[in-house]
Fold each of these.
Amino acid sequence: MSWIFLVFAGLLEVVWAYSMKQSAGFTRTVPSLITVVALLASFGLLALAMRTLPLGTAYTIWTGIGAIGAFLLGIFVLGEPVNMVRIVAALLILTGLILMILSSH
């Protein structure tokens, strides 16, 4: 169950990061509220996952899901630039996540 909590916590990290971008520095009400709610839910699920998962594993996976998710959202939704260096950096993060998961079993 902890892994499920962790995956949803990571996905909610992407939600709050995107909503924060849309809030224009917390000047827009709805995106600001979504940011706060998603952030609290993400932290809550991370805390539940950390009941049984090691800190280093849980935090690394949580931030990694958020980083890769935000990277992809930025490209596909916000039209952020794509270049080889950014792609290699994202692949290195993904590789690190996979290695962290494999080392946890």
Amino acid sequence: MRKLAGIALFGMLLAGTAAAQTRIGEVSTTFRFVGPNDKVLVERYDDPKVEGVACYVSRADTGGLSGAVGLAEDPSRFSIACRAVGPVQIRGEIDQGKKGEEVFTERTSFIFKSMRVTRFFDTQKQVLVYLVWSTKLIDGSPYNAVSVVPLKP
């Protein structure tokens, strides 16, 4: 019993704590006789270190019995659009290195796969670049998408 509780806690830690999401909407895509339907979800993530920036991510959500109990593996298909939704103001220090800084993460399978959003700072063009990607490799490289937010209008 303790081992199972430890595994569950470890899974929650892997899921991350930076995700401050709001579900905006969903569209049912595949009817399932048992359990919830497959869906495309639209969620908003507010950047915790950059005030006035919101990222909207659409992603697949697997239904059925395995989806209902959290054991389904969601497909690595997503899109991202980040926008200035107010005055853009960086709070504190952000990573300006080539590896960027992980901003959000969300588990998309029981253990092995997650969707992540990494922020990069292009100092030359003065823009923030947001990359959404999957931790599970598909044919040698993960699915990904990118969006850019200028720091100055």
Amino acid sequence: MRAKRHAGGEEPEIDLTPMLDVVFIMLIFFIVTASFIKEAGIDVSRPDAVTAVVQERANIVVAVTESGEVWINRRQIDRRAIRANIERLHAENPQGAVVITADEKADVGLMVEVMDQARQAGVYNVSIAADQK
């Protein structure tokens, strides 16, 4: 077998198009599958807990302030609309969990009401956020 010689002294070129296609497909894959950190939209002073663990799938974050305000997705929500908002967000992502981020001095009754509304909305994976000691 004889090796082919290139006429005119041209050097062979590498076609980068397939590699670029693969890179763009991988980029799209990582963007679609990435989980972004969602915040409730307000800063609260969370209590410390020794047994606090990191919640991997916390897609619905509900913040309860010291003054009794409820925030979901950077919007203040009326107490009567908590269930409807959680149902809507849960329909968008059925595997998501509800994390209640409550201020240390927040009303416990309001936190229980938010937990109850989340369970009535069909979300049974409800947690309360705390800082690790």
Amino acid sequence: MAWVCLYIAGVLEVVWAYSMKLSAGFTRFLPSTVTVVTMMASFALLSISMRTLPLGTAYTIWTGIGALGAFASGILFLGEPVNGLRILAAALIVSGIVLMKLSSTY
């Protein structure tokens, strides 16, 4: 159950990061509200997953999901640039997440 909570927390991190961008510095009501609500839910689920998962594992995977999701969202929805170095950086993040998951005994 901790892994499911962690995965959902990571997806919610992507949602709040994207909606924060759309909030234009918290000047737009709906994206600002989505940001705050999904941020609180993401933190709550992260804290639930940390009841059983080690801090380093949970936090690394949570931020990794968020980083990769924000990277992909920026490319897909905001027209951010794609180049070899950015793809390499994303691949290294994925590698780190996989290694962290494989090294966890939980």
